[in-house]
Amino acid sequence: MDCIFCKIVNGEIKSAKVYEDEDVLCIKDINPQAPVHILIIPKKHIAKLYQTDEITLLGKMLKIGCDIAEKEGIKESGYRIVINTNRNAGQSVDHIHFHLLGGRILMWPPG
Prior knowledge:
By secondary structure, the protein is an alpha+beta fold. The chain has one domain: HIT family, subunit A (2-Layer Sandwich). The chain is 21% helix and 23% strand. The chain is built from two helices and five strands, in the order αβββαββ. The chain has helices spanning 4-9, 55-71; strands spanning 17-20, 24-28, 36-42, 79-82, 98-102. It has a five-stranded antiparallel sheet, with helices on one face. The longest helix has 17 residues, at 55-71.
């Protein structure tokens, strides 16, 4: 598979790991948009959010994001968890992933 996230999950490409278990890998974004910008990636390749019904996995990913926000010290000040789906929304890798952003004031509306 030519997916960059699958290559990261498989250890073919180095990354700055923040968390890992049997289902999920979390890494620092190489182009951070906030002081804290972590990608929460399922190890299973799922191209688009609407292509899965794995509610347990998605819920686990959200919980991991909340736990990392606390570890990173942004739980109280605030953080955002974002899922981009398809090109117009900013999905640049066809492997679902959540962005955990925080550590600065985040504007609304985004983008």
